[in-house]
């Protein structure tokens, strides 16, 4: 039972493996553990000590994962109870006060897991609903307390109607948890919920959309694309529900073309175009595989002034790096061949395993093979409501390059 302190479990770290925790990295791998006293149930709080037995952290126990424990707190006097979660949730909201208070924007990430001191918990606000993911045993164990605290704390910022769970993700299996989805509190969200994103009207499906419903992490980059689009023809690859195309037209793009392999995503994109009253004549869509459609577009002699490449995660793990690198390179190469001289390429990778330096190299190789010279105008990254806690570089997953291609 959460809050039951009749038992204190202790996890002692191995002397040679404790340095990352001492630098406040929140993950404890199975190989770093010297011994565990007692038999904690999944999600229970364990007292973490260094090899000398000195307190270092309170953490959530996760017996089936390689990441055997995740830190809640490095403060010995801080009890891990309902109040702890309320404080962390309040703090996460206060950190985003500037975003939550904006009249022209009613969707953003509220809680970004480790970066907000709540490993395994993702909470996104979409207008008057919250959509969340409970990814680890620790947050699963405290779910009731977390949901109650969320429902209360969010009232300071909006009239929350409901909290929906989208824990239908495969990573839960690593924690020994089943996939789950449904209403956790309040009302069921409408099938399509409309959000306002810097004046763009966007319909989001909390029940069926990707992640918690939508790609909030690209907000800052959509704003950049909006600023760059005036008078340009824009090719939006891996368009999903068309958010970059909407930003481009808001910024007075001449023409946009969306490519995605998902027919429902393209249907929703079309719906979003209508919501924003953008002219059908400025909006084209192609349903298909980007790798093939880019080649077809070359054959038909099409050219674009601005191309966006925002593919799904090509590498889940380091073992998939080579294959992922080839895929990132191929689309950048094909895109470069479609760019007008002086055109812009915004290319992204949301694979955490692909580091910034490698992504830059892949893009450089692609332009070299395309026989084009390029310059990086901006290094792009995930939006500021997806911050990276300094001791936890793993939180930096979305990276991109804005290049001018001569
Ligand atoms: N840019 C979008 C998010 C893209 S998510 C946004 O800002 O909202 C990745 C999208 O790529 C998904 O919609 C998925 O349907 C699509 N996709 C995945 N593989 C594809 C492929 N080979 N060809 C075309 N689309 C693909």
Describe the overall structure.
- With 406 residues, the chain is α/β, with parallel strands linked by helices.
- It is 28% helix and 30% strand.
- It has twelve helices and 20 strands.
- It has helices at residues 19-22, 82-95, 97-100, 137-141, 143-153, 171-174, 219-228, 243-250, 263-275, 290-299, 321-336, 356-370, and strands at 9-13, 27-29, 33-37, 45-49, 55-61, 67-73, 107-112, 121-126, 129-134, 162-167, 180-186, 193-197, 200-204, 233-237, 255-260, 283-287, 304-309, 339-349, 374-381, 399-405.
- The protein has a seven-stranded mixed sheet with strand order 16-15-14-17-18-20-19, sandwiched between helices. It has a six-stranded mixed sheet with strand order 2-6-5-4-1-3.
- The N and C termini lie far apart (63 Å).
- The model has no long low-confidence stretch (mean pLDDT 97).
- The site of S-adenosyl-L-homocysteine has 18 residues, from helix 8, strand 15 and helix 10.
């Amino acid at each position: 039972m959460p809050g039951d302190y009749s038992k204190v479990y202790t996890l002692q770290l191995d002397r040679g493996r404790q340095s990352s925790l001492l630098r406040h990295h929140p993950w404890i791998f199975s190989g770093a553990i010297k011994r565990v006293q007692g038999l904690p149930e999944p999600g229970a709080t364990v007292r973490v000590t260094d090899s000398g037995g000195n307190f270092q952290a309170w953490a959530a126990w996760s017996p089936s994962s390689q990441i055997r424990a995740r830190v809640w707190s490095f403060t010995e006097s801080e009890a891990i109870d309902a109040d702890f979660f309320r404080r962390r949730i309040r703090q996460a909201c206060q950190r985003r006060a500037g975003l939550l208070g904006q009249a022209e924007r009613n969707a953003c990430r509220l809680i970004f897991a480790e970066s907000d001191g709540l490993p395994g918990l993702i909470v996104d606000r979409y207008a008057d609903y919250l959509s969340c993911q409970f990814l680890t045993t620790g947050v699963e164990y405290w779910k009731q307390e977390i949901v109650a605290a969320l429902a209360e704390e969010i009232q300071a910022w909006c009239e929350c109607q409901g909290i929906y769970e989208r824990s239908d993700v495969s990573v839960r299996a690593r924690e020994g948890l089943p996939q789950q989805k449904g209403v956790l509190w309040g009302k069921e969200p409408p099938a399509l919920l409309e959000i306002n994103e810097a004046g763009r009207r966007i319909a989001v499906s909390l029940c069926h959309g990707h992640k918690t419903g939508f790609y909030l992490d690209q907000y800052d980059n959509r704003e950049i694309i909006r600023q760059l689009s005036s008078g340009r023809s824009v090719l939006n690859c891996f368009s999903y529900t068309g958010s970059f195309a909407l930003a481009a037209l808001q910024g007075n793009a001449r023409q946009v073309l969306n490519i995605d392999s998902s027919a429902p995503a393209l249907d929703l994109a079309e719906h979003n175009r209508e919501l924003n009253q953008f002219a059908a004549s400025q909006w084209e869509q192609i349903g298909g595989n980007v790798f093939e459609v880019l080649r077809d577009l070359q054959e038909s002699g099409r050219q674009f002034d601005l191309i966006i490449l925002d593919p799904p995660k090509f590498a889940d793990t380091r073992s998939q790096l080579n294959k992922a690198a080839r895929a990132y390179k191929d689309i950048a190469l094909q895109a470069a061949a479609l760019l007008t001289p002086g055109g812009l390429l915004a290319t992204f990778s949301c694979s955490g395993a692909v580091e910034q330096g490698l992504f830059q190299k892949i893009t450089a190789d692609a332009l070299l093979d395309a026989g084009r010279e390029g310059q990086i105008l901006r290094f792009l990254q995930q939006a500021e409501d997806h911050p990276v806690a300094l001791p936890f570089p793993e939180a930096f997953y979305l990276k991109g390059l804005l290049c001018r291609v001569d």
